[in-house]
Write a sequence for this structure.
């Protein structure tokens, strides 16, 4: 186990799917990165350092010493952890007196720090240790010509005196990793701009959202296929904040993916294996573009997939659906999400597509002038076209084909009630009519 993960607090607490894609992808690359017990928060530099610098220094030094005791370099997928651990390591390696003081304290918990291990950002690790060539050769489903906007985030690059992973003003390494997947790394004006996440906890949430929005607006105007990053705080800014903008009515529509998610897809892993369905802003448009490159998800004619995507993200009317009220296992929003992900073949065999009763409640309520009934109708039509239908529906179709009606007239009860014979079905006319219309 030559390397150990340092996850920090944010990923396990808020974004475990980022841990999932990282573990799955590195495992599939055959890279041995293990886990260590005993870490605390890195701790967060912007919060702890100004308030309690000694606590910040000792806690970070303790984290480093735990890894050093085991002879393991650290790999972190968090810009914040990277900043803290690299800054403290750099400070202590340049200041022998400070290191001696830290070690005096570390002795009390049986640890010692000598600066013998390295701290890698996950992106740095993939680029410098795993290597671009290895990554390129692991790609089985390239992201050919998809336009991906890299967001480095400040603390993957700056302060360069402590970080030193790439040229802080003209970085290229993350872009190289994107190109290794076959994608185009989009150049854009706000590329090196901060995500603004640190403004939120100091009472400036609006400014934090405004900063995130600037980049998203530019990427929307450039019509990129996705943004990629590798920091949970940045993801919070661009995914969660973007979702809040969507709820306020602003549709920016920029899918935001961790690099390990892109890499996993390019390695041929399924979206479900990577946990990509757990983003706040759906990544389905990106997945659809990706699927189209590789044989593609089955296309459903007459269905506005943009509307399906918005519906999948919305879900506002789900609890107005009468079927949801009586069937715990049915959630039409789940069907919309799967449809938006391109999971059409599996959906066509799902009993759920037959559970929409066409009550049109959702259509009447929908502020987007959509209604889930439209998607259910198309799914059922496609299923029928492939000969997939419930037995009750099959029996009704057979009855209609045979007699032009769904059930026989109940002549006996009619006679008892003194009613005239039931109307004859004009099945012969119907056959002529249908034969004509088929020509
Ligand atoms: S940077 Fe943030 S997420 Fe990472 S360990 Fe520190 S506080 Fe936790
Ligand atoms: S039309 Fe279908 S999905 Fe919409 S509310 Fe009625 S049963 Fe539910
Ligand atoms: S049908 Fe309309 S209101 Fe209901 S979830 Fe879809 S988009 Fe939202």
């Amino acid at each position: 186990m030559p390397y150990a993960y340092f996850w920090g607090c944010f990923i396990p607490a808020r974004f475990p799917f980022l841990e999932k894609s990282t573990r799955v992808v590195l495992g599939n690359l055959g890279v041995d990165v293990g886990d260590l017990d005993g870490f605390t928060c890195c701790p967060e530099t912007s919060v702890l350092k100004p308030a309690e610098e000694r606590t910040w220094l000792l806690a970070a030094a303790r984290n480093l010493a735990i890894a050093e005791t085991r002879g393991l370099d650290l790999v972190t997928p968090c810009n914040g952890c990277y900043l803290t651990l690299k800054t403290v390591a750099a400070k202590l390696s340049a200041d022998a007196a400070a290191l001696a003081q830290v070690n005096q304290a570390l002795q009390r918990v049986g640890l010692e720090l000598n600066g013998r291990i390295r701290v890698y950002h996950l992106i740095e690790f993939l680029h410098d240790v795993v290597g671009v060539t290895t990554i390129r050769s692991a790609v089985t489903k390239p992201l050919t010509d998809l336009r991906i906007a890299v967001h480095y985030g400040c603390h993957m690059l700056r302060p360069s005196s402590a970080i030193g992973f790439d040229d802080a003003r003209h970085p290229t390494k993350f872009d190289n990793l994107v190109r290794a997947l076959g994608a185009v790394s989009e150049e854009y004006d706000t590329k090196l701009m901060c995500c603004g996440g640190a403004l939120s906890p100091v009472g400036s949430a609006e400014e934090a959202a405004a900063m995130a929005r600037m980049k998203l607006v530019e990427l929307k105007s450039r019509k990129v296929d996705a943004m990629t990053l590798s920091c949970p705080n940045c993801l919070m800014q661009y995914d969660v904040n973007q979702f809040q903008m969507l709820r306020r009515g602003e549709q920016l529509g920029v899918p935001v993916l961790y690099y390990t998610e892109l890499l996993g897809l390019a390695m041929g892993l399924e979206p479900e294996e990577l946990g990509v369905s757990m983003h706040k802003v759906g990544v389905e448009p990106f997945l659809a573009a990706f699927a189209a490159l590789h044989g593609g998800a089955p296309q459903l004619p007459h269905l506005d997939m943009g509307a399906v995507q918005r519906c999948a993200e919305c879900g506002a009317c789900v609890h107005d659906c009468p079927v949801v009220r009586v069937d715990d296992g049915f959630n039409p929003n789940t069907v919309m999400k799967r449809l938006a992900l391109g999971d059409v073949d599996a959906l066509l065999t799902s009993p759920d597509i037959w559970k929409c009763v066409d009550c049109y409640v959702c259509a009447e309520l929908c502020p987007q002038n959509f209604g889930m009934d439209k998607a259910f109708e198309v799914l059922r039509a496609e299923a029928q076209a492939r000969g997939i239908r419930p037995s009750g529906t099959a029996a009704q179709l057979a009855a209609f084909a045979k007699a032009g009606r769904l059930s026989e007239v109940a002549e006996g009860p009619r006679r008892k009630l003194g009613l005239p014979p039931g109307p004859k079905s004009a099945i012969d006319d119907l056959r002529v009519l249908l034969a004509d219309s088929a020509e």
Notes: The chain has four domains: 3-122, 131-293, 305-385, 400-438. Residues 8-10, 41-44, 78, 80-81, 232 surround iron/sulfur cluster (ligand 1) (CB under 6 Å). The chain has 23 helices and eight strands. The beta strands are 3-5, 33-34, 73-76, 119-121, 147-150, 184-185, 226-229, 256-258.
